[in-house]
Design a protein that fits this description.
Helices cover 59% and strands 4% of the residues. The protein is mainly α. The protein has 2 domains: 79 residues, Recoverin, domain 1, CATH 1.10.238; 97 residues, Orthogonal Bundle (Recoverin, domain 1). It comes from Rotaria sordida.
């Protein structure tokens, strides 16, 4: 698993890159990777895994629902680099600060409430353009193959995990989160 993770993460610097890799492996565009598609990808990557039993074991590590297919969520969950406890806490603090209604999901309403003073319409920026910008922002986090404009904790932590993989120091990671989300903790 680690060999595959390292190989794919070398070409992926953000979560959207992993989504594109998933789409490339999903040859039939079903939104799920079959064993045959997975086997073809493993062989194409030339990881030194040629035995079908080994490939099947690796496939089963991804297929956490044991339905014989890998969906995007399962794929990302296996490939995202883990965050240490300090980084997870910082990411959750950011998420919780933006989740104004405390329902465990970030929506346009949450963001408009949290950033109300910064999102006031002006002569050059209409209320409608603000809504479109916020919707586009939320869509960037969607990882379940549907762009519902709602970010749950798993999606947010997935984004932060990919970001974390590019930042060496915990203090700098926290600084990047503060800068991205204008949050002080």
């Amino acid at each position: 698993m680690e060999k595959l993770r390292q190989c794919l993460l070398q070409s992926a610097s953000k979560q959207s890159d992993l989504i594109e890799i998933f789409k490339a492996i999903d040859q039939d565009r079903s939104g799920r990777i079959t064993f045959e598609e997975f086997r073809a990808a493993i062989k194409a990557l030339r990881l030194g895994i040629t035995n079908d039993d080994e490939i099947k074991q690796l496939f089963q590590q991804f297929d956490s629902t044991k339905n014989g297919q890998i969906d995007l969520s399962e794929f990302l969950q296996q490939l995202r680099p883990p965050m240490n406890e300090r980084r997870q806490k910082a990411a959750l603090n950011v998420f919780n600060s933006m989740d104004v209604d405390k329902d465990g999901k970030l929506t346009i309403v949450d963001l408009k409430t949290k950033y109300a003073t910064q999102l006031k319409p002006t002569k050059r920026r209409s209320s409608q353009s603000i809504d479109i910008s916020l919707q586009n922002f939320l869509t960037k986090f969607d990882t379940r193959g549907q762009e519902d404009g709602i970010i749950d904790k798993e999606e947010f932590l997935g984004f932060c995990s990919m970001l974390s993989a590019t930042v060496k120091e915990d203090v700098y990671f926290e600084h990047v989160l503060r800068s991205l989300f204008d949050f002080h903790f």
